[in-house]
Amino acid sequence: MKLTVFGATGGIGQEIVKQALAAGHEVTAVVRDPAAFTVTGERLEVFRGDLSDPASLRPAVAGRDAVLSGLGARKKADAGITTRLTRSVLRAMEAEGTRRLLVVSAGPVGPQPADSPLLDRAMYGMITRILKDVYVDLAAMEAELAASATDWTSVRPPRLQDKPLTGSYRQVVGGFPRSGRFIARADVAHAMLAMIDDAGTVKQGVGVAY
């Protein structure tokens, strides 16, 4: 497949690029500074993109089978950036007629299991209060997805870890795995790549966790 990856310098974005190349896909990695991107590969194109200008992103998404985005706030002060950047990606895709889009969101944005243990509910409440602005931003991003013409999927992980790929995790379409507290960035990337051809995840939020 021909894939485009936004946020390719981030933890999840780099994993998507590496795993996609290893699987034999053609990958376009969209970055602001190509010099800061160290991943290499025969089927890799590094595209310097201005995420404030949807028109400049059109060549990066034209004719692609899917677009995957690891864009997101890297610190609390960045809240609001995810919606703005994703909106640019959506406009570029809609202009080119590219439909399949998978993005990273977060577990607290979606519904929690009805039978969550008391400790999980307490942790959920604390985290959502501390990072309220970040989750408001992600919810707004998901609203943009829902209003778009794309075949989107929002992947919602819990706390992220820098650990090796396992390929073993739980996922719930329209919900979240019970007591799912952690997942490696590598496994989030693995899940996103696996969902590209999964029609059951289209226009859905999908919770992923160990």
Class from secondary-structure proportions: alpha/beta
Tell me the total number of β-strands: 10
Largest sheet: 8 strands, mixed
CATH superfamily: NAD(P)-binding Rossmann-like Domain
List keywords for this structure.
single chain, 210 residues, alpha/beta, Rossmann fold, eight-stranded mixed beta sheet, two-stranded parallel ribbon, 22% strand
Folded structure, characterized:
This protein is α/β, with parallel strands linked by helices. The protein has a single domain, classed as 3-Layer(aba) Sandwich (Rossmann fold). Helices cover 36% and strands 22% of the residues. The protein contains 6 helices and 10 strands, in the order βαββαβαβααββββαβ. The protein has an 8-stranded mixed β-sheet with strand order 3-2-1-4-5-6-10-8, with helices on both faces. Helix 1 (11-22) crosses helix 6, helix 2 crosses helix 3 (81-96) and helix 3 packs parallel to helix 5. It starts with a strand and ends with a strand. The model has no long low-confidence stretch (mean pLDDT 93).
Short account of what is shown:
With 210 residues, the chain is α/β, with parallel strands linked by helices.
Tell me the layout of helices and strands.
Elements: E1 2-6, H1 11-22, E2 26-31, E3 44-48, H2 54-61, E4 66-69, H3 81-96, E5 100-104, H4 118-130, H5 132-147, E6 151-156, E7 159-161, E8 170-173, E9 182-184, H6 185-195, E10 204-209
Parallel strand pairs: 1-2, 1-4, 2-3, 4-5, 5-6, 6-10, 7-9
Antiparallel strand pairs: 8-10
Helix pairs in contact: 1-6, 2-3, 3-5
